[in-house]
Structures are given as C-alpha cells and as structure tokens.
Specification:
The complex is a heterotrimer of chains A (about 375), B (about 300) and C (about 325). With about 300 residues, chain B is mainly α. Helix content of chain B is about 70%, strand content about 0%. The two termini of chain C are about 20 Å apart. Chains in contact: A-B, A-C, B-C. At the B-C interface, helix 4, helix 5, helix 8, helix 9 and helix 10 of B face helix 1, helix 6, helix 7, helix 11 and helix 12 of C.
C-alpha cells in the first residue's frame, strides 16, 4: 500500500483562556504524515504543540474548544477513515484578517461522533504511550492485569489465561527483569524505566499499526533513557511498526526517526528525512532548526566547557500570535531582503527539495 | 453549541479588572446573598436588643389569630395566639447570635492554637493533637450536648462552649494542612532563612497572609452550624422556652397546627432558618471559591 | 487486589489498636463530665450499677472513705465494659437492656438514611462530573442541594407527615408497637427518607464526590485507559467513587446520628435519639451516658470499616 498510514492535514486545535478572554492556538495548521514501517519524529520546545498534536490524533482533547479543523486520514490494512470526519458539521469558525476570532462548537455532538470514530481504533490500531509512565498506569491494578486487559480487548485471545500468558510474553519482550514477578506487582513497586517498559508492552501487546510515543524518555534517568531508546530501536525493527515519536530531546529523535518534523509555535517549520533535517552542516536549514541543533552541546563544546548556545528570546506566546512569521522575533538569520515579509506575512510550508519541506521566507520558492 | 470568542486585542493585565469580571458570577451571587443575610441578622440583633420591634413579640391578640402575611400591621402575619410573627422572628435571633459568636470564637482560637502547633512542630506532637481531634470528632454533637444538659443544665452558654470545642478539629485540621502545604513549598524554610522570628512567622506570614481566608470561611460555616444547633435544641425543648421566641420552638409549637393545615406559624420560622443557614453556607462557599482560587478563572 | 495477607492484617490490627485508644479517650471524657457534674452523679450511677440493695449500702459506706477519681474511673469502666451501664433513674430498669433494642431501631434509621443520601447524591455527582462544569446544567442541581441541606430537618419531617396523611392516607407516626399490618415497613420509609434528605449532608456529599470524580477523570492513568480503549469507568471508579464514598460516609456519621435525634422526635420513633432526649429532660444520667458511649462506638466503627476498605483497595499504600 502506498498510502501513508497516518496523514494529518491542516490540523487546528485551539484552547480558550477564560481569564485572558482569548484563544490559545496550540496547534495551528499542522500537516505531516507517517508512512508504513516508518518512524516520524516530531521535535520542538515545550509549548510548540507537539504533544497536543498527538493527543488530537487520539481524540484525547477534552477541554474546549479543542480540535476545530483539518483532517486526519488513517489507512491501515484493516481500517481506513478520516478521524475528523464530520467535524466541519459541528464547528463554525469566524475569521477576521485570517485570524480566528470566534468558534462555535457543538462539543457534545462532536464528542459522540469522535467516540464512534475512534472506538475501534484506540488501543487496537493506534496505541499511545505517555510521559511519566508511573502516573500513567493505574496504581490500583497490577501491571500484569493492565496488560492483560489490553490483550483481551484488542486481540483474539479473549480467555483470561491466554491473555495473561500473552501479557507475560510481552513483558519478556520488553526485557523487563523477572517478568512473572512484575506481572503481579503494582506500578508503585516498579521504577520509572520498568513502568515505561510495561507501558510499551501494554501498547504493543494489542499489535497496533501505529504507535504514538509522547515524550517516552522524558522524566527518566539519563542512563535509563538510553536503554529505553535501545528497546524501541529493537522493537521497531522486529515488529515493523510505524511510530509517531514526540520528543524535545534531539538525540532520541535522531536515533529513532526516519523522517523528522520540527515544530514551533503550533506549526511545522521544517519536515523531511532525518539526515537532512538534523544535519548540522546542511546549507538549507530552517533558522529555528539550526538554532535548536546549535543549542545541543557537542562533545567538543562539553570538553571545552564552552558557553551553552541558547536561543534568544522567549517561547512563542500562543495567545498573542504575531502577524508575521512565528519565529521572526528570535530569528538570527533575517536578511534585509526578506525582513519586511518576515514581519508581516506568515510563510507557507513549501517543498524546497524532494521530500523536504520548509516554512521560511529565505527559502521560499516563488509561486 | 458552545461559543468562544475573543477581541482583537488581548487583555494583558488580568488583575486590574474590576471584580465583577474577575470572578465567576455564581460566586459573586453567593457572597452577595450571604452578606445580605449577615447584614439582616446583625440588624435584627440590634433591633431585638433595643426592643425596636413592630409589635411586642409576646403580645397575645385573640382577635387576630393565624393572620396570613400582609394583613393590616402584621407584615408576616400572626401565629396561633395572635402574636406578630415578624417581631418574634426578629427576637428569635437573640437566641443564637451571641452564643454563636461565642462558639465560633472558641472554635477558632482553639483551632488556631492546635493547628499551628501541629503544623509547625509536626512529629509526635502532631500525632497527639491528631488523636485529640479524632477524639472530639467521635462524638455526635447533639448527643454530647444532651449529655451535658443532663449532667449540668440546659444553659445555652454551656451548650455553645461544647459547640465551640467540637468545632475545633475542623479548624485545626484546616490550618495544619495549610501549614503543611506551605512547608512543602519551602515557604516556611525561606522565612526562617530570612531570619524572621518564629512568632512573626506564625502570626504575620502564616496566619494573616495565608490563613485569613480559611479562617473567615470557617467562621461563617461555624456560625451556620451554630444556628442549626440552637434551632434544633430549642425545637427539642432545650434552650429558649415559650413564650419567649426562638425559631426552633416556634416551629415546634406550630407543629400541630401545621398538620391540621395551618402551615404558616411553623413555616415562617422554618423558612427563616432555611434562608439564614443558606446565607452563611453560601457565603462560606463563595468566599472559598473566590479567595482560594478554586474556580477556573 | 490480592495483597500479602500478613500486611493487611497487621495494618488492621494497628488501626484497631488506635480505635481502642480512642474509645478509651471517649470513656474518659464521659467520665470527666460525670465527675464534674453537680450533684453526686457518680454515686447515683454507681449505685444503679450494683445489683442488690445491700451491695449499694456497702459501697456507700466504702465510698465514705477516700476513693480517688482514679479508682472511681476504673470501677466505672469495668462495669461499662461488662455491659453494666447502671439503671435508668426514670424507669429503674437496667440501661444496657433498653439500649439494645432502641439502638437497633436507630441503626435501621441511620443506615437507611445513608442509603437514601447516596442514592440521591451519587447519580447527581457522577452526572455533574462527567458532563463537566457546565454551569447551565449542574447549577440548579447544586443549588437544590444547598437548599435541601439548609432546610431544618424537623420541618421537612412535618411536611412529609402532612403529605403522607393527606396525600396518601398514611400515618407514619404509627409507633412500632402497632399490630403488624401488611405494609408496615412502608411506614418506616418516611422517616428514613426524611433523614436521608434532610440531614444536611447532601450538598457536601455531592460536592465532595463530584470533585473527587472530576479529579480522578483528569488523572494520567485514566487518560491511558481512554487511549487504550478500555472502560474508563472501571479504572476511575475505585479512586473516584468507592474510596470517596466510604470516606465521606464515615465522616458524616456523627451528623447523621444528630439528625436521627431530631427525626426520632418528629416521628416518635422509638430509637436511641428519642431516648436521649427523654433522658436529657429527666436528667437521667445513666441512660444518656450509655447512649453517648454507644454513639461514639458507632462512629469509630464506621471509620474502622472505612479504613479496612481503603487498605483492601489500596495496594501497599500506593497512592500517598
């Protein structure tokens, strides 16, 4: 099948701040794809909207107004559908000068529709693992039972005994020590790393087509982080699963991703093959990506105890989004030629090389 | 359909907004109503104290039995003995006002003392104090008061002392929790590091800055409970006795008439109880939401 | 939910020990009031606790000597523990025996009213929390809860009686000693209903349950359950409903008992509450003392049960 497994087009997820009486434009027109057997990494600072994008795909946004536009096409061997089908019927957006000023949304109606759409996908076709694995597991139920629950819900193993065996099998596969012992343990007895392994086991035990991993290594100790990434690499090649990997940690992204999307201020600013996007020396580089890569201390810099290269300025305030390019205020590559455009107009995401997209006036291809 | 909209300019400084835009409407209504009730109670207390009443609350008027509200000079009608209900209601406040204040002052002072010691010291002392609060909490209030009445006498002040003591656990736990919360935020450590004396830390920083909302709320809720208790007791026949009016005994004496279809003599005081306790409870809750930032602003 | 049994048992034993300690404290307080009371309450009580006139005479003489409060406390305590609460000043009958029957009546009333409170509060709380804090829907219900909580329960009782009599030709005031008819148990429903609604606890229970459920719904692990396609209810209910319900019911038992005193008065219900009222009227100290002890024991029993439930559900103290 040459259709991508997941195709997100122009996704917009907004929140509303009652105290400030304005919208929080968390995800403002995001488009990206995940193909078969491919891992796409989404990298960016906190507040860039990457986690919200993942949550929007899974339909886990419950605060209003939430997802208000776009489409999310999912196409696996068993299921093909648009996860946001019917959204336009529940939402009415009023814009002024290209900015959204008012949103009317039939929240309950959309929730019902969304639940119906997602019901046979969640856990079964698309599985998600989260940051902070200990808090993400039910502390009142044993780890093993939680995995067994997933197996019974989504695979052919409906009997309790078979499902439990399957759960133990998966615990072994994620290289957790003493799997049978851990099966009967509660999450509070497990370390962060072990909890994350258990979560991965739980997610993969239902044999989904797509795995969404939201900051899977954040919050874990550095050594454990690396082990989890090793595990994910192995499982990736063993199972051939597609993954949407969210992280602000560039090293994690670079180790696991085939393609990378860089997000800033709720939009994708660069998107292409991992080697291209993450290559520090490349000529075609989005200013933000360049700055991001530069801020990660290299081995040499550490040895030299050089000053950390931070990105100037503050993270974009997604409430008070400026009219021009999102990154303009912090960009250090603005040339006089494009300055005016950068300040007043949002650049579009355009293909600057085969398979490589960029959102920047400096590389913009004249229409 | 839920509608969200924004203006073209973003509101920058939220705290400068006038209060009616800052807080949830619901909470403002609660507080407004509550304050209204407090004002009425206070006013009635003063009226009662000086006997500035439309009629003598004990004046029997056999010509005007069971008059409905808005009859001639009797704004709220008369009861089964022709006595003016409004005057009796106003007088009834005497029965619980001062005693209630006594009760809440005992609760607050005892609670502050125990709460501060427990929260500040922690450790064994806290365990001991917790034991005492659990001990006091083991007694149903009304039953304990009946015990005291049986042992001593049905004096409202004795009763309110018991009421005050049984109210200490709630205040103490609230304060101790608050202190624990502040300690968790290293607030207290910081104050100590700054070299502040313990007494100053406790009184000024902990109590005044951080606990005053809590204390006000405990006071209002405590008053509400005191009223409930006094009216229940006088309903049962302890406390203010006929012919002196108390809301509780008014409901009780009107009971038989109620069952015969003459609702008003029992209902008027019952409604007074309802609206007053409601006022104190709403005031407490509204203040709680506003001052403790509970609502999603 | 299987925990190594040894740990649960140890935990429960420890809690039992604390309960005993508290009950001891309760007895101390009661004794203190007894002792401080004007008039020689203690002797009256003690005399009442002894079986024969001669024994009473003997103790009166013995007490002429010095028997410090310490000794008095212990002899009193021993009597109480062996079930001897003395004899009622009014009836001359042993208190313990009378207490047994009436406390069962009150137990029925109390448990029944708790059930009523939960039957009303739980659906409202769950509905509110699942729907979210949309003011339009849950506000009238919250308000209703507040109003009902502020209603004086005695007045509510009269309304209920009035409606029963005039609306349904029903006499809930009928005492329990009436000749048994077919639908007698129905008569008992009215006071239970009144206490369940009017004990002043409804709005707090609703608010507490709703807050807890909303909080749990927002927890990470519930989000995982959703993402997994699992039943959210199955994951949320332990921490969101079961634990909060047991906790708030255990905490509200003293209030419900207080309400029972009043409701028993309104409906002339032969329970502990009405007996307490009578005892207060008559200054019948032994009776009221016995009632206080039983009531406090009941409160502590409630909290013990709550503790057991918590321990059983909460593995190895997993959550704070």
């Amino acid at each position: 099948m040459n259709q991508p497994l997941l195709k997100i087009e122009n996704l917009r997820t907004y929140f509303y701040s009652r105290s400030k009486h304005s919208f929080v434009r968390a995800v403002d027109g995001v488009s990206l794809e995940v193909g078969q057997r491919e891992t796409v990494g989404v990298v960016g600072e906190s507040g860039s909207g990457k986690s919200i994008t993942a949550m929007s795909v899974m339909g886990l946004i419950s605060t209003g107004p939430g997802v208000i536009g776009g489409s999310i096409h999912f196409a696996s061997a068993r299921v093909q559908k648009n996860l946001l089908e019917g959204l336009h019927k529940c939402v009415k957006v009023e814009e002024q000068d290209g900015r959204v000023m008012a949103v009317s949304k039939d929240e309950r109606g959309w929730q019902k529709t969304a639940e119906r759409l997602m019901r046979d996908l969640r856990g079964k076709e698309i599985a998600m693992i989260f940051q902070n694995p200990r808090a993400s597991l039910n502390p009142y139920i044993t780890v093993g039972e939680q995995i067994t629950e997933a197996v019974r819900l989504h695979t052919a193993n409906k009997s309790v005994r078979e499902a439990r065996e399957r759960a133990v099998y998966w615990l072994e596969r994620v290289k957790i020590d003493s799997p049978r012992l851990r099966f009967n343990s509660y999450p509070s007895a497990l370390s962060g790393g072990m909890c994350q392994r258990a979560m991965i086991a739980m997610a993969l035990s239902s044999e989904p087509s797509l795995l969404i991993a939201d900051e899977p290594t954040t919050g874990l100790d550095a050594t454990i982080q690396s082990k989890i990434v090793d595990l994910m690499e192995e499982l990736k090649s063993e199972t051939g699963i597609s993954t949407l990997l969210i992280s602000h940690d560039i090293s994690v992204i670079s180790r696991l991703s085939d393609r990378v999307a860089v997000m800033y201020g709720g939009a994708v600013v660069e998107y292409g093959p991992a080697q291209r996007v993450l290559d520090m020396g490349a000529a075609t580089k989005h200013p933000y990506t360049a700055a991001l890569l530069a801020s990660v201390p290299s081995a040499q810099q550490i040895r030299d105890k050089a000053n950390l290269q931070a990105i100037e300025g503050d993270v974009l305030d997604t409430i008070n989004v400026p009219p021009g390019c999102r990154f303009y205020a912090r960009c250090n590559q603005v040339t006089p030629a494009v300055r005016e455009k950068c300040a007043t107009h949002q650049p579009e995401l355009q293909e600057v090389a085969p398979g490589h997209q960029m959102r920047c006036w400096r590389y913009a291809v004249p229409a | 359909m839920k509608k969200y909209s924004q203006t073209s300019s973003v509101i920058e400084d939220f705290s400068k907004l006038p209060f009616w835009q800052k807080y949830a409407v619901v909470d403002l209504i609660y507080v407004g109503y509550g304050l209204l009730i407090v004002a009425l109670v206070l006013l009635s207390y003063i009226l009662g104290m000086f006997n500035w009443l439309p009629h003598d609350p004990q004046q029997i008027n056999m010509d005007m039995l069971m008059a409905p509200p808005a009859t001639a000079d009797y704004l709220l009608g008369t009861d089964f003995m022709g006595r003016d209900i409004l005057s009796r209601l106003i007088m009834g406040i005497q029965a619980y006002f001062l005693p209630g204040l006594l009760a809440i002052s005992i609760s607050l002072s005892g609670g502050i003392l125990l709460g501060v010691v427990a929260g500040y010291r922690g450790g064994t002392i806290e365990t001991i104090i917790t034991y005492f609060t659990n001990l006091v909490d083991s007694f149903p209030r009304l039953v304990l008061i009946l015990l005291v009445i049986a042992a001593f006498k049905p004096d409202i002040y004795y009763i309110m002392v018991v009421m005050g003591i049984t109210g200490v656990p709630a205040v103490a736990t609230a304060i101790a929790n608050k202190i624990r919360f502040l300690a968790q935020k290293n607030f207290i450590e910081a104050a100590i590091a700054l070299g502040l004396r313990t007494r100053v830390i406790i009184v000024k920083h902990i109590l005044w800055y951080n606990c005053r909302a809590l204390l006000i709320i405990q006071a209002t809720l405590g008053m509400g409970e005191a009223i409930l208790l006094e009216t229940s007791l006088s309903y049962l026949g302890f406390g203010v006795q006929e012919p002196e009016p108390s809301w509780g005994n008014m409901v009780q004496s009107g009971a038989n008439y109620f069952l015969q279809g003459n609702f008003w003599p029992s209902t008027a005081p019952a409604l007074a109880i309802l609206f007053t306790i409601l006022g104190f409870n709403l005031l407490g809750d509204g203040l709680n939401n506003i001052l403790e930032d509970k609502r999603d602003k | 939910m299987l925990m190594p049994p040894k740990e649960i048992i140890l935990n429960i034993i420890k809690e039992l020990f604390i309960v005993m300690l508290l009950l001891l404290g309760v007895s101390f307080v009661v004794f203190g009031i007894l002792y401080a009371a004007p008039g020689d309450q203690f002797s009256v009580l003690l005399e009442g606790q002894l079986p024969t006139a001669q024994a009473r005479q003997e103790i009166r003489e013995a007490m002429g000597g010095a028997q410090g409060w310490y000794g008095q406390y212990f002899s009193w305590l021993l009597n109480v523990l062996s079930g001897n609460f003395g004899t009622s000043v009014r009836t001359g009958l042993p208190v313990a025996g009378e207490l047994l029957t009436v406390s069962l009546n009150t137990l029925y009333l109390t448990l029944g009213s708790m059930l009523v409170t939960l039957l009303v509060a739980v659906p409202i709380a769950l509905y509110s929390s699942v729907r979210g804090h949309s003011v339009a829907i849950s506000w009238p219900l919250t308000m209703l809860g507040y109003v009902i909580s502020a209603l004086p329960v005695f007045w509510l009782g009269y309304i209920a009686i009035y409606i029963s009599i005039h609306g349904f030709d029903f006499f809930p005031l009928a005492s329990m000693s009436r000749t048994p008819g077919e639908n007698d148990w129905l008569y008992t429903l009215v006071p239970v209903l009144v206490l369940g609604l009017g004990s002043g606890t409804i709005s707090e229970v609703i608010r507490n349950l709703r807050e807890e459920m909303s909080r749990v719904m927002a927890e990470d692990y519930v989000r995982t359950a959703r993402a997994k396609g699992a039943s959210v209810w199955r994951h949320a209910f332990k921490e969101g409903l079961l634990l909060p319900v047991t906790q708030i019911i255990a905490a509200k038992i003293p209030f419900i008992l207080g309400g029972a005193v009043i409701v028993e008065q309104v409906f002339n219900w032969p329970g502990m509450g009405r007996m307490a009222w009578q005892a207060a009227q008559d200054r019948d100290f032994p009776v009221i003392m016995g009632i206080v002890l039983v009531a406090a024991a009941f409160v502590r029993l409630g909290s013990l049960i709550q503790h057991i439930v918590c321990t059983a559900v909460n593995p190895q103290g997993a959550r704070d």
